[in-house]
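Re-run requested by the PI after the first attempt was lost when the workstation crashed. Everything re-entered from the original request form. Ligand of interest: iron/sulfur cluster.
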Amino acid sequence: MNEFAIERYLNRIIEEREQGEKEKYVSPYFPEYVREVVPDMGLDERVSQLTTEQIERVIKRVIGKQTARLKSIIETCMHCGLCSDACQWYISNDRDPTYAPVAKIRMTLGEMIKRNFKVDPEFIKFCARVVFTECNICHRCSMYCPFGLDITAIIRLVRRICFILGVVPQRQLDQAQTHITFLNQVWLSQNDYLDTLFWREEEGIYELKNLRIPIDKEGAEILWFPLGAEPKTGVDHIDRFAKIMAVAGVDWTMTSKDTWDSSNMSMFINDYFTMERIVRGLYENAKRLRVKRIVLTE
Ligand code: SF4
Ligand code: SF4
C-alpha cells in the first residue's frame, strides 16, 4: 500500500470516528453478531481486491480433502456449552453466545462448508475478524469438550485461509512480514543485531569488569535465543542476562547467524513455510555450535 492509500485510509478512519464512536457493526450474515466498528487496514483494504473465485480456490486448497471430516466435527457438537465456560472471550463479554467457541467455528468454517465454499470477500473479512481478534487460540475450549472436538484446530484452519488470501489484521501482518524478511519480529537486520550485542557488552563492562557476551562459542553449555524486542527496544536485557550468567559462572553463548529470535509470530497466522524456517534455523544454530542446551526468553 503506498503512502497516498495509507493517508486516504487514515482520513476515512478519522471521518468515521467523527461521525460517532458508538457506531456498531452488525454482521449481514449473523444479525446477532453486533460489535464496535474497529477499522483495520489489514482487513479492510485487502478484501476489496479479492474475488469469490479466488476465495473458493483457497478454501478448497486448505480444507478440500478434509471437508467431510470437518463437517462431522462441527455436527457432532451437541451444544452443551461446556467449552464456552473455558473461553475468556465468552466469559468477559457477558456470556454473549456469539463469542462461544462453537459459534466461532459455525459462523466461519461451518458457513463456508454450508455454502459449498462460495463466499464473498466481505464474508472473509468477517471470518478474519472472528478468528484473529476474538480468539487467542489458547486451546482451553478443546480441552473442555467431552467429545474432544478440536475447535482450536478449526480456528487455525480459518486463520490459514485468511492468511493465504492476505486478509490479516495489520499488526499481525506486519509481524509476519518481518519474520519472512529477517526471521525476527522487529525488522532488525543481522548487522544491527550484532552491533547491539557488541554495544551492550561495552555498556555492561562499566558495571562488571571483564563482562563478555560470547558469540559463536562452540560447545558452550547454553545457547541463549532472546526475544526479538530485546536487541531492538529492550537492549539492557542483553547485558543483564550476560551479568547473571557471568555471576552464576555459566558457560553460554549467542549466535552470530540469523534465526536468533525465539518468537514465532508466523504460527499465529499459520504461515507453515516460515514457521518451519524459524524452527529449523534455531535448531541449525544449536547444532552448528554443538551446545548442550537452548535457553529461550519467555
Ligand atoms: S481457543 Fe479461542 S475459542 Fe477456544 S477458549 Fe481459547 S480463546 Fe476461546
Ligand atoms: S463442549 Fe464440545 S460438544 Fe459441548 S458445545 Fe463445546 S464443542 Fe460442542
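Saved to the shared folder this time. The chain has a mean pLDDT of 92.
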